[in-house]
Amino acid sequence: MDIRFEEAAALKEKPQGPLGFGKIYTDYMYVAEYDKNKGGWWDQAIVPFGPIEMSPASMVLHYAQETFEGLKAYRTKDGTIQLFRPEMNARRFINSNERMSMPAVPEDMFVNAVRALVEKEAAWVPSGEGESLYIRPYMFATEEGVGVHPSAKYKFIIIASPSGAYYASGVNPVKIWVEDEYIRAAPGGTGFTKCGGNYAGSLKAQEKAEQAGYEQVLWLDGVNRKYVEEVGSMNVMFLIDGKVVTAPTDGTVLPGVTRNSIIHLLKDWGYEVEERHMSIDELMEAARDGKLQEAWGTGTAAVISPIGELCYKGEKHVINDFKTGDLTQKLYDTLTGIQWGELEDPYNWTQVVVEAE
Ligand SMILES: *Cc1c(COP(=O)(O)O)cnc(C)c1O
Predict the structure, then answer these.
(1) CA–centroid distance, residue 356 to ligand 1 (Å)
(2) What is the mean pLDDT of residues 275-297?
(3) Atom of ligand 1 at shortest range from CA of 92
(4) CATH entry, 4-163, from 3.40.50.150, 2.60.40.10, 1.10.540.10, 3.30.470.10
(5) Are the C-beta atoms of 49 and 27 separated by less than 8 Å?
(6) Which residues carry this modification: N6-(pyridoxal phosphate)lysine (predicted)?
(7) Global pTM?
(8) Which of 87, 111, 230, 317 has the highest CB neighbour count under 10 A?
(9) For ligand 1, what atom is nearest to the CA of residue 299?
(10) Each residue of 178-224: pLDDT tens digit?
(11) What is the SS3 assignment for 294?
């Protein structure tokens, strides 16, 4: 199925000055239509970015069949535009959709759609330090009806947003609130998917953390509120006594592309990486004993977010004097170096969309 193209009547002015994150959108968006009664995906188009017309009875508005992804296009110094492991996002989208009883977007359809939009919007991929084109694919149920069952119709849309460096003033540690009341995920639930509902349910704890003067929440497991799972909407890793510990991706934790890439780097550098359930008590004890050397969150938006302070039930610990640790910095420099084409890519993680001129 070819991707149709509808020309915009006029193009927008490119922004001048700081871009922020996810505030500005490009001229076009990609829209694909699914209908079970038409045999599946039946239309794909790149159309002017603009409002979506849909019924107020669209099922997503009532029962939240909605999934999404997040990735970036990077412009290298010589003008090449490239993606970072987009096939990983495609596969994760398939897994998210499967869990939400939504149809699959085949891996090649997903990657080709992302590539087509980025190619069309190449002029929107910014070239400033740390800037990128943030790409947001998402899918939702559009069948009309308020009966509860999987929708027969869906839209799969991709929008793109030129975004600034996540850290305006360099990588800075954040203060983390360990949440012991609200949970993000439970076994058998949707924790491993990127679905909007997971986020709606997490906002309350985020508000609570902010009111207490913290920037992000550290999530504990949903059964015992004991094992460390994620931080905000990032995976989380700890350097304890020379070893790196992170939660396993066995259902409640989102399998991050950044997490996977960083584990690869760490193992290549000779670090022992333990993917295991670690209790918050073990973590606090390591902090008390001076064995917790560094801690950081990982995700596409920030790449790496160092953790400078933890607060659990009133007990507070500052990590690495509230400074970005050496390993945290080296991971950040290496991964961003590969993404922006400043370092060799021995893993073939990057995929060129537009060649340098
Ligand atoms: C998206 C996300 C991550 C990070 O995944 P990346 O692929 O590295 O961007 C981690 N945790 C949650 C809950 C997420 O939604």
Answers:
(1) 30
(2) 98
(3) 7
(4) 3.30.470.10
(5) yes
(6) 194
(7) 0.97
(8) 230
(9) 8
(10) 999 999 999 999 999 999 999 999 999 999 999 999 999 999 999 99
(11) strand
Higher per-residue pLDDT: 172 or 94:
94
Ligand 1 atom with minimal separation from the 89 CA: 7
Measured CA to CA, the distance from residue 141 to residue 156 in angstroms comes to: 9
Q: List the CATH code of the domain at 174-339.
A: 3.20.10.10
Q: Which atom of ligand 1 is nearest to the CA of 88?
A: 7
In degrees and rounded to multiples of 5, residue 351 shows phi and psi of -135, 120
Please tell me the residue having the least CA distance from ligand 1 atom 14: 233
Q: Where are the alpha helices (DSSP H) in the chain?
A: 60-63, 86-99, 107-120, 196-200, 203-211, 257-268, 280-288, 326-339
Mutation test of ligand 1: which of 84, 254, 263 has the most ligand atoms closer than 8 Å to its C-beta?
Answer: 254
pLDDT tens track for 135-169: 999 999 999 999 999 999 999 999 999 999 877 66
153-163 and 216-220 strand pairing:
unpaired
